[in-house]
């Protein structure tokens, strides 16, 4: 079964070249972090992945990243989507480089996959070959280690995680029990890059089986 990619859409982007001290305090910015970059997008997990990429491409740090409840279909406004991410850097140039990395990852690299023609049944089985500072902190691993980022609807995610953990020499570094803010579930798995790829493939294959025969157990 060939799955079709579902790509996120960047909805809004803004930079604050010199952030106000009161706002800097709220985001707990470090000394020297004076510029902020903000972005919203239609798919949260793609957004988290893209933020991590920014930390590898520029001198920036993720200072805020949240999913919105119930997902993009119930967003608070036309530019809200499903996710907001904020990065901080020492100057506008570094933040601009980070924003560019975020946009490129969202548009060309990280994506969900559709299990049906309508695109209403989806999964995310993305392998990060080398983590940046953000996802490595979330997963509790060293920067530069590989990661399998696995997300799906609730039952599919739990079944798929079990298959992924049994398919390769990987460890569950972060568990997202359903329902998440967007009513999905999943986890982050660590191991070698080849092990993460094998785990992601097992996750995907097991969920394809559920999509084909949801009531056969």
TrEMBL record:
<dbReference type="InterPro" id="IPR030983">
    <property type="entry name" value="EutL"/>
</dbReference>
<feature type="domain" description="BMC circularly permuted">
    <location>
        <begin position="113"/>
        <end position="217"/>
    </location>
</feature>
<dbReference type="GO" id="GO:0031469">
    <property type="term" value="C:bacterial microcompartment"/>
</dbReference>
<feature type="domain" description="BMC circularly permuted">
    <location>
        <begin position="1"/>
        <end position="111"/>
    </location>
</feature>
<dbReference type="InterPro" id="IPR009193">
    <property type="entry name" value="EutL_PduB"/>
</dbReference>
<dbReference type="GO" id="GO:0005198">
    <property type="term" value="F:structural molecule activity"/>
</dbReference>
<dbReference type="InterPro" id="IPR037233">
    <property type="entry name" value="CcmK-like_sf"/>
</dbReference>
<dbReference type="Pfam" id="PF00936">
    <property type="entry name" value="BMC"/>
</dbReference>
<keyword id="KW-1283">Bacterial microcompartment</keyword>
<protein>
    <submittedName>
        <fullName>Ethanolamine utilization microcompartment protein EutL</fullName>
    </submittedName>
</protein>
<dbReference type="InterPro" id="IPR000249">
    <property type="entry name" value="BMC_dom"/>
</dbReference>
<dbReference type="InterPro" id="IPR044870">
    <property type="entry name" value="BMC_CP"/>
</dbReference>
